[in-house]
Amino acid sequence: MSTTIGKHVERFDAREKVTGKSVYTGDIKLPGMLHGKVLRSYLPHARIRRVDVEDAVAMPGVVAALTRDRLPIASPYYGSFVKDQPVVALDKVHYAGEIVAAVAAEDEAIAEEALKRISIEYEELPAVITIEDALNKDAPLVHERLEKKPAVFGRGMKSIEHDGSNIYFHVQYERGDVEDGFRSADFIFEDSFFSAANQQYPLESQIAIVDFNGEDFTIWSATQSPFRIRDEIAGLFKVDSKRVRVVIPYLGGGFGAKSVIGAEAVAATLSYMSKRPVRVAFSADEMFKTICQPAAKMIIKTGVKRDGTIVARRSEIYLNSGAYSNSVSSIATKSCYRAHGPYRIPNVTTDAYAIYSNTVPAGAFRGFGGHQTAFAIESHTDMLAHRLRVDPVEFRLKNLLEKGEEYAAEDTPIDCDVKDLLRQLSRAIGWTPEDRKPQQTTTKRTKGVACVVKDGGGTKKEANAIVKVQADGRIVLICGTVEIGQGSSTALSQVVAEQFSCPAEMVEFATIDTAYTPYDTATNATSGVFTMGRAVLQAAQGARDRMLSIAAMALDTSELSLENGKIVCRGKAFNFQEVLHGTEIVGTGECKFDRNEQIPIGYPTPFWEIGLGAAEIEIDEMTGDIRILKFRSITDVGRIINPLHCRGQEEGGILFGIGQTLLEELVYEDGRLINPNLTDYRLPRFRDLPDSLVSVIHEEEEIVGSYQPKGSGESGILAVSAAVCNAIYNCTGIRMLDLPVKRENVWKAMHSIRE
Amino acid sequence: MISPFQLHRPKTIEEACALLAQYGEQAKILAGGSELILLLKMNLAAAAHLIDIKGVAGMDTIRFEPESQALKVGGLVTHRSLETSRVALEHFPLLVEMENQVANIRVRNIGTLGGNLCFAEPHADPGTLLTAFGARIKVRSTHGERLLDIRDFFVDYYQTALERDEILTEVEIPKLPANWSGAYLRFCPGERPSVAAAILMQWADGTCADARLTLGCVGPKPVRIPEVEVALRGKAAGEILAEGVNIGTKMSDACDPPADIWGSVDYKRQIVKTLVSRGLQKCVRDA
Amino acid sequence: MDAVVIPIHFRLNGENRQAEVRTHELLIDFIRDRLDLTGTKRSCDIEICGACTVILDGKAVSSCSIFAYELDGKELTTIEGLAQGDKLHPLQEAFIERGGFQCGFCTSGMILLAKTLLDQKPNPTRKEIQHYMDANICRCTGYQMILESIMLAAEKMTGKPA
């Protein structure tokens, strides 16, 4: 009988957040702190002829100015896969919005005024904006060849080099023989899809405070990756990582926008130059110009048999990486691995490309490419079904992998009965053949379904955790999973509390500080409760067992039990401190994945993140307006740790999906973003909430006393776009192949049908 | 960041006008600030002097004047006050309906009707409906008062007929007699309306006696299409219903919507057509 | 020109206060930097997202786009003023119970906006809440759990089920 797992436990950060007391990076004021502001290029591609900051530097109150000519770092590049991004533009600017200079001043007003006094001379160069532009054989190169980390995969997956091209990363996955497969097929269908670049828009923009005291850097940052930041900054300044300390306050959302360097590099350099703490806070406008989700084109070609069996699939995925590589090579790798979907397909070849262009650098975004491949795969799946005149749900049931069946050679088998969930979903929404018939009325209303499985938990993510039972009886959890809003500090503390059979309130979650927090890869990939959860579980069990053995010695008996936060022995209850007698217990835990060359990605998939969804929509024929009346999702979280968290993550993800499907798009004109603000970039709002939104949190593993949580941070977003587009097709016969689905395009398509 | 300015807070309209006359180009009028403060923050406007007129007496009332059968709305009346005004609801329910949709509650709490009209944002709601109502704008300067027809008030994008030294003091909205029905429809895919239509129709024995159709957000200022209005006179309700889409088409052909992030010219025209035909349907239903 | 300074007298979370503000100082900066109340957050800075919402004379306003001198003679409520000591306001309790927050960055503004709604309409319908609260943006919760939090708060405050 669990004490806290599965129960609604008040979140640790609850009182702080509802009373305005939670401290975010922007709420921290250090004595002598300077304010840093950044000047950005308005040209998408240009050589920098001259940077003149003399007038800015001469202003009273300006303490430091950073340009390529005033750069105290020998090798000012950072980047997780390719070190291609400089702290400040050097020879060229590679996108409109790139940092070309920065100043640190006594206050913000002076810093802003100083920027106006900087003059830059550019020599404009031709720019490439779209994937097509960048792949054109005469396309100018965004970057010359740069040194990359070697990409190592397992069997069936390999990277392919391209010289003299804007393709800086190409990964291919193969199994079986796709040409053979196509030859054996009765029909072959090919479709092409596109999803636009989106902005993650956490309410809190990127921000960092760096204090360099002459020896060491202390960094307060709104980052999802404390250790990555530590290592990047240490790398930039060529110091030991122990000279860089990263402390994490609360984050106002992340969604991938804070997975890599944001404001930290500029802040660190300005602090290094001024020897004073420097705060650099990006405005919302600047956040739009710092990071985005890659625009993605996906071509899927599938061979099927007359009886509806899928026999072969060839896919191509093109990701617009923008001006810098960031983590797009990882997104390409993951997208490549996801292209065949949760279906039984013996012959597969998938090629995924990460491509430079002169646009805002792309990177991690909730779903990490999974929601974009899901749109393509699940739309395509419906299209296959319709062409074969088979019910889309039946077609899926025929081809979906069973629980326990292999997704790819040697990788973790599918851990959920997805077919059963799909049946549950279609029953719950009352799915009937009528849902698949085009309607003649002006306002059309119908349903669509999608079923998505994505690798969850990241790849080769390392997590470590420490659980201390202090001499005063307090339990402290020390681990690096960042509280970005998902409730991880509470959930992980519940895992600890469960081991001690104590209320969750007895566990304290320590501030993340790379000086003492054990290493964690980063907070992303829906890995918090699974990967870090395992490390925490092990640490908690170790600490508990050690405490009990000390208690057994102290009480001279091994007949002890834990109840309600106390040690119970012979009918008496003892507080932990009473048996510890001034001793402190430390338990450690880890979760590491061993390399397995037989697995295509080289490491096992921790778990499968499940995202099923059904949408009931209404279309206004005269305007092309689409309203999602009802949305029902199912996700499998293995074991619920905190019910409110699961629902919150799922429903938040669904609204992200609604944004991706109907609302959000970064628009470029003349090579620059024309909508880097909320006036012209449409985020989902209350009005976009469907009249009925039901998120079903399924628990596949319900083994009493056991612990098998998965995660649902990204599941909500996965099925929305295809479910909606499938519904659009079901009532109009029109197939939307681009995201976001624009009213105008729906209207045009319906209009031309009627003519 | 906003540069420092000299703040003036006049207590009377005379004082306000005098200040404006004195400082001319160097001064800006501050009412609610929901537009001006954004412009100042983004360095799209600058002011060495800000004349905050919120303290000026007599400009924040809403009253219905029986003699003239007009609603007199002070320039400083906020959208929220208008939205919740019983007087406005009694005599001009369509006005209340429109105000309820302006921006969001935070903007409506401080944004003023006067400020909104003077800013002459093409993607604003009030101007469109007030044009259909045939509102009149009272403005004041040290030289005296003028009363302008709203159609003469709006000149171009962000440009009104206000002289440099004039302040909008009141908006007069003539009431329509009982046999009028109306509709205000807007298409708002983003933050501000992309297309809007205000339709007022007067009925006599099931026939349209008079009609006013105004389109908003499709050009520099609200647009009335007199030919369409004239053509509607004498038509029976049933006829109007049947021809709704054609009337919408005439309206959309007669205007010149700009293409932008929210749609092409053709699409905007389609929205005009749709809003007009739906507006006509509502007017017929409510007749 | 040099900044001009104005004295102001106002009520802050129930207490009389006075201060000197520069004419061009924005309310959000006055609250965060001068009053040291950092619960009010800046996000979009153009009055759209509502993260900066505070209550001025009973009305929800965007503190990012109002001058601090407007406080003179008025009553300001920030998120810090809602709880009475340790006793949380029913809205705060409800947001905790129903998961109306996650990262918390929109939460101060969201709760204050909801308070102005419930002050005017103690038992709003779900649709009325949705329409009123549409003013503010949340990127984490998906909105439904905020709606449910507000409905619970209304129930707590009036004793009437939603």
Structure description:
The complex is a heterotrimer of chains A (about 750), B (about 290) and C (about 160). With about 750 residues, chain A is of the alpha+beta class. Chain A has 19 helices and 33 strands. The radius of gyration of chain A is 27 Å and the shape is globular. Chain A has three domains: about 180 residues, Aldehyde Oxidoreductase, domain 3 (Alpha-Beta Complex), CATH 3.90.1170; about 325 residues, Aldehyde oxidase/xanthine dehydrogenase, molybdopterin binding domain (Aldehyde Oxidoreductase, domain 4, 2-Layer Sandwich), CATH 3.30.365.10; about 130 residues, Aldehyde oxidase/xanthine dehydrogenase, molybdopterin binding domain (Aldehyde Oxidoreductase, domain 4, 2-Layer Sandwich). In chain A, about 60% of the residues are buried. With about 290 residues, chain B is of the alpha+beta class. In chain B, the strands form four sheets. Chain B has a five-stranded antiparallel β-sheet with strand order 4-5-10-6-7. A four-stranded antiparallel β-sheet of chain B has the order 11-12-13-14. In chain B, strands 1-3-2 form a three-stranded parallel β-sheet, covered by helices on one side. Chain B is globular and about 60 Å long. In chain B, helix 12 crosses helix 13. Chain B starts with 5 loop residues before the first strand and ends with a helix. Chain C contains five helices and five strands. Chain C has two domains: about 80 residues, Ubiquitin-like (UB roll), CATH 3.10.20; about 70 residues, Orthogonal Bundle (DNA polymerase, domain 1), CATH 1.10.150.120.
List keywords for this structure.
heterotrimer; B: 287 residues; alpha+beta; Uridine Diphospho-n-acetylenolpyruvylglucosamine Reductase, domain 2; Enolase-like, domain 1; 3 domains; five-stranded antiparallel beta sheet; 26% strand; globular; C: 162 residues; Ubiquitin-like (UB roll); DNA polymerase, domain 1; five-stranded mixed beta sheet; 5 helices
